[in-house]
Amino acid sequence: MSVVPADVLPGGALAVDEADRGAAELGPRARMWPALAAVYRAQLSRARVARIPLLFVATFQSIGIMILMRGVVDGGGEAESVVAGSAVLVVAFVALNLLAQYFGQLRASGGLDHYATLPVPPAAVVLGAAGAYASFTVPGTVITAVFGCVLFGLPMAHLWVLVAVIPLAGAALSGLGAALGLLAPRPELATLLGQLGMSAALLLGVLPADRMPEAVRFARDLLPSTYGVEAFARTFGEHPDWAFVLGDLAVCGAVGVVSLAVATWAYRRAAVR
Hints:
The chain is an all-alpha fold. The chain has helices spanning 12-24, 32-69, 76-108, 111-116, 122-135, 137-152, 162-183, 187-206, 214-222, 225-234, 242-271.
């Protein structure tokens, strides 16, 4: 009895090739929204324990700044700027500073290789992580805004506008933070850039714009969080101009779309290296 290799039988080689090809084929890529929800839940559960203490730090930092500013600002438009800027500063601390550090460490440790092997769109990874980090800012931002209104005697009738300010400012700052972390060649530089961005949000967002030099005002207009601060600050008046509020929110949202698109491009660039 002779043994005949399978590849010399009629149709044998074809059967082997088809079996190998079927084993090598990957499953279909996940759709955008289910993949985004999966990444968001994974990031939320992962960061829940590690980020909550930092959220307390961000909240107490903003409250401390308002207490210090209470000695030099009595009320009026300057108090409105201080309260609005301090509330958005909580978003900047988490969405900009911490997200830049996270993506910088993820790139340095090779964590991007894990996501690159998954059939997940790059935009889902960036948006899921950004959304999870921005979600942690909600309680701290609300607490800071309420405390500031009580401290400076501002009305709280329109605090509901935070429902729009937090996600739009969070999107703009999260995209910027993710891009900084992914483009920085070293994690230390990503941390430095994130902290510089948060410092810019502190100095340019909390301090009243009327007391700034013209060149600093121009730099303030380039900061994405500025428009969230302006939109929130306008709602403290007796008769807010909602057209200007919606305009500031629209600019903040447009900047968020651009910054998240840049972050997605930076993720693709870093993942293929």
